[in-house]
Design goal:
- The protein has 114 residues and is mostly beta strands.
- The protein is 0% helix and 52% strand.
- The strands form 2 sheets. Strands 2, 4, 5, 7, 8 and 9 form a 6-stranded mixed β-sheet that branches.
């Protein structure tokens, strides 16, 4: 199973505005993915309470064949600072333990509007 970021969110955004362009991730071999989530991390790589966005993978005929895509168009960060997003896919293998696959966005600077 591979997970990748196809479209990075912006590197700079104002507090309280939706990340545009939205984050887009894709995966191959998606049959065993139980769920996909995006988690906001602070500069110490710790999750920020209240900032998680669930997602689901779907086929997109306008993109690369064989991949499934998730678009996160509703991400809003309401606190100034430097952050990154962790995209996490939980994989359930029948008869075995669950594991996860993670990828990270570039740094996002969230600043107060002037």
């Amino acid at each position: 199973m591979s997970l990748r970021i196809d479209d990075q969110p912006p590197s700079q955004v104002e507090v309280g505005t939706t990340l545009t362009p939205p984050l887009v991730v894709s995966a191959l071999d998606t049959d065993m993915i139980s769920f996909l989530t995006v988690i906001l991390l602070n500069m110490n790589d710790n999750p920020v309470d209240g900032y998680q966005w669930p997602g689901s993978l779907n086929k997109d005929s306008s993109r690369e064949a064989g991949h499934e895509y998730a678009t996160f168009s509703n991400i809003v960060i309401n606190e100034a600072g430097y952050y990154k997003l962790r995209i996490q896919a939980i994989i359930m293998v029948p008869g075995a333990a669950a594991y996860d696959v993670q990828v990270y966005t570039n740094l996002i600077h969230v600043e107060e509007s002037e």
